Amino acid sequence: MSVTSSQNLNKGELTQLLDIAREAIRGHFSEEGPKSPQLDLYGKKLLEPGACFVTLTVHEELQGCLGSINAHTPLVLEVHNKAIASAYQDRRFMPLTEEQLDHLMIEVSVLSEPAVLEVRSEQELLDYLSNNKVGVILSDNYGQALFLPQVWEQLPKPHDFIRHLKIKAGWKPDHWSSSMTVKTFTVTSIEGKYFEAI
């Protein structure tokens, strides 16, 4: 189990979130189905509205990743909901199966509030990202795409990072316009095996 540097959540709280994601997925395979977390078992910080992504990998290959940008729902419920969504509702992948559970890794990423980054050109954005490996949200009149900071591990060069992000949004790799909005964010995340600590 690995933990990135924490913002407001300590390791114990992050571990609770990881357990919530595990239980949400486990509940899908039970006769009763997944049960929502019992809110009175959690501390104040985990009950505050939070935005998160839950990322699933099997044999180190992406199996599902869905989440939220804006905080509207108590964090414990958001993690529960996004774990189920990532496992069974990500249209890019077949739903998770019991046969995959032995090799399933779960990562829960809690997002900071996105902040607008004032840049006048793509080059200004690239210059900023060369020294700041943060999460990025690109928005234009007809699309939006997000990369978590973890994507820097696969795309360490700012040019490649932004190029792939634009492709994800459905734009041409060289697309840029005066209406482009850039927001950045950081995450507090924890990763662990599905069968860890059972």
Automatic annotation (TrEMBL):
SUPFAM superfamilies associated with the record: AMMECR1-like
Record's signal peptide: none
Gene3D superfamilies, alphabetized: Hypothetical protein ph0010, domain 1, Hypothetical protein ph0010, domain 2
Domain AMMECR1, chain residue ranges per copy: 12-198
Stated name of the protein: Putative ACR protein
Pfam families: AMMECR1
PROSITE patterns linked: AMMECR1
Organism: Photobacterium marinum
Domain of life of the organism encoding this protein: Bacteria
Coiled coil: none
